[in-house]
Amino acid sequence: MQIQPTNQGIYRQIADFGIEQVLAGIWSNGEKIPSVRQLAMEVGVNPNTVMHAYDYLKDLNIIETRRGLGFFVSSTGHKAAVALRRSVFLEEELPRFRRTLDLLGIDTEELIQMLNPNPETDN
User: Fold this and answer.
1) Where's the HTH gntR-type domain (predicted)?
2) Model-wide pTM > 0.85
3) pLDDT tens, residue by residue, 22-54
4) With 64 labelled, which of 8, 32, 35, 123 sits at a CA distance of 20 to 30 A?
5) CA distance 10 to 52
C-alpha cells in the first residue's frame, strides 16, 4: 500500500486499503489482519494513524478486536464492506460517472458495448 498525496486523510486511505482487502477476499471473515505496528511499518506511518484507521473500521463493523489476540475481520465484515462501498458508489461515484457520460455524449448502448465488446464470446 502506498500513501497518495490527496485531500483524503492518511487514516482514511489506510481504512480504504483495509476495505479493499476484505472485498477482494485477501482478508476473510474471521481472519487475523496485520497488527497496528506491522501495518504502520509496511506503510511507513505512525502506529497511531493505523490505530485511527482500525478504529474507523471497527465503527463500521468491518473488523473487531479480540482481547490479547489482535484485530480480526468481523463475521459480517465482508457484508459490511460491500454495503458501504455499494452505498458510496450509488450515491457519489455513479452520479459523477453519469455526468461524465452525458458531457462526453456517450449513450447507454455505447457504454454497454464498451463494457462488453465481444458479447458472443462471453457464453
Assistant:
1) 8-76
2) no
3) 999 999 999 999 999 999 999 999 999 999 999
4) 8
5) 10
Residue with cell 455524449: 105
Q: What is the CATH number of the domain that holds 52?
A: 1.10.10.10
User: Is 30 contained in some domain?
Assistant: yes
How far from chain centre, in Å, is Cα 91? 16
**Domain assignment of residue 100, yes or no:** no
What's the pLDDT band for 73 if we cut at 50, 70, 90? very high
In the block, residue with C-alpha cell 462501498: 85
5, part of any domain: no
3-state secondary structure the chain: CCCCCCCCCHHHHHHHHHHHHHHCCCCCCCCECCCHHHHHHHHCCCHHHHHHHHHHHHHCCCEEEECCCEEEECCCHHHHHHHHHHHHHHHHHHHHHHHHHHHHCCCHHHHHHHHCCCHHHCC
Nearest by Cα to 47 from 71, 69, 27: 71
Give the integer Cα–Cα distance in Å for 77 and 62. Answer: 4
Range of the domain at 49: 10-77
